[in-house]
Amino acid sequence: MRLRLALFAQCCATMAFAVCANAEDVALIVGNADYDNAPQITDAAPLLETKLAFENAGFLVFTVNDWTPDTWQRGLGAAIAKMTDADRIVVVLAGYSVHSVRDAWLLSTDAEDPAGYTIGQHGLSLGAMMDLATQARMAAVVLVTTPDVTFELGLGLAPGVGQPKVPDGVTLISGSGEALARLLSEKLLREGQSIRTALSQRLSGITVSGAQPSVALFPGTLATSQSDSTEEGYWRAAADLNTSAGYLAYISQYPQGAHLAEARAAIAALRDAPELQAQDTENALGLTSSARKAIQRNLTALGYNTNGVDGIFGAGTRSAISRWQRAKGFDATGYVTRDQVASLDAAASQRLREQEAEAARLQAAQDRKDRAFWQDVAAEGGEAELRAYLKAFPKGLYADVAKERLKRIEDDRLTASQAQERKAWADAKAANTVAAYRDYLKQYPKGLFAKEAQTRINALERPAEDQAAIDAAKAEESRVAGNSVVRLMVEQQLASLGLKPGTVDGTFTDATRTALRAYQTSRGMAATGYVTQTTLLRLLSGQ
């Protein structure tokens, strides 16, 4: 809107509308009919035939027939280069279309069994094409056909375009190829007819969403040779703006002008259409994406859900604005004024301050309860009181102190428990009987010495001949491994095999005996737990 106002003012200042040059208008027509894996469709042909109508309206036209991702990439660059400096952009997508909850796509002619996670390989994003169209200075129109899809669609996809989010300033139109072609030829590309007027009548088989600006796709040419060309240019600019201010400017400049009656009628119509006035008023603000996001955040903070903060004023945001306006006694147009934007910001800031104050009040009350509980119950209490405090105030003021005190209590308990267990084990070893070891295991089934206790029970319960073998092995060990150097080598080998002989220091402990028995058992030898000559030779040779 700001750009159109600037153009209007510039042309008025020079009094030469005939020389206000427009950037080139661009039309891109993609027509898919011959699909590899689906029946042919007829939607593309009538839309491709609109190329001449576009050219007559002054558009630079790009067409792509039966595209695949490869051919599309080659055709896209030239169109994009022209779109960056276009007043009007029209994109026509004809073929099978599918959609997910987030976007819609025109399927390429070689698409096969598309699914939500592979659609990027088979389709042209409708959202991306609408984003490209937003580069237009004056009008952006996207038309897409909706034939029945006969593809086998995978997870996450459904036929048609669904209900896509339409960017600000874009007009999205869907329907059959014939209906869209008729709309283009008979209405949208009719000289001097605005998009709003073309879409104002009920259109059979056509669905429209998004913007409906008072801008003509085919504004026509302005004669420069006639004496009234300046007034005609002024009038065309006013009609293109379609605002009360524009028409009043024309009346002020030409109080007896040829279009005086039309200007007055247009002003009256606008006065009778508050929504259009409200839309023009908001457009004149030139709200940036960040400003729109701020408005959405403010509405949300005040309890009016906008269905997201994305800088796009869709149905959710418009509804939220209307509800807020109604609550504040404004006309519920769904479009904001400058004063309303300021009022929203002030109200949201006040709500934030109130919320912060309420949060501080609640926190202060919580802190008072926290301190009282600590002083009355937990400060001088034991384990039960400390645990009760942490249950009530898991992140309380004294949570770290309570946790530290509990840790000390638990460490003391563990130390005392281990001391008792060691004493019980020492008593069991002193008695060295099956009954003594079983008593130990009964008290400490998973104790520090449970494994050794069971080993000793097994040894004590062995038959006499087994004990004789153990005694013989014990005597043999004193001969073959009687010095600390040999014992150190034995422990090193056991450790290298991962058998955990205890500290490798040349002293055989209970852990060493357990490791020896494990080694002997794994090698098919008598598991005596003592180093016989055979055990020594095999162990040191790495067998």
In short:
With about 550 residues, this protein is of the alpha/beta class. The chain has helices at about 1-15, 45-50, 50-55, 70-85, 120, 125-135, 175-190, 195-200, 230-240, 245-255, 260-270, 275-285, 290-300, 315-325, 340-380, 385-390, 400-430, 435-445, 450-460, 465-480, 485-495, 510-520, 535-540, and strands spanning about 25-30, 60-65, 90-95, 95-100, 105, 125, 140-145, 160, 170-175, 205-210.
Report what the structure shows.
The structure is a single chain. The chain has 543 residues and is α/β, with parallel strands linked by helices. The chain has 4 domains: 23-210, Rossmann fold, CATH 3.40.50; 287-378, no CATH class; 380-461, no CATH class; 468-540, no CATH class. Helix content is 55%, strand content 9%. The protein contains 23 helices and 10 strands. The strands form 2 sheets. Strands 2-1-3-7-9-10 form a 6-stranded mixed sheet. It has a 4-stranded antiparallel sheet with strand order 6-5-4-8. A hairpin with a 4-residue loop joins strand 4 (97-99) and strand 5. The chain starts with a helix and ends with a helix.
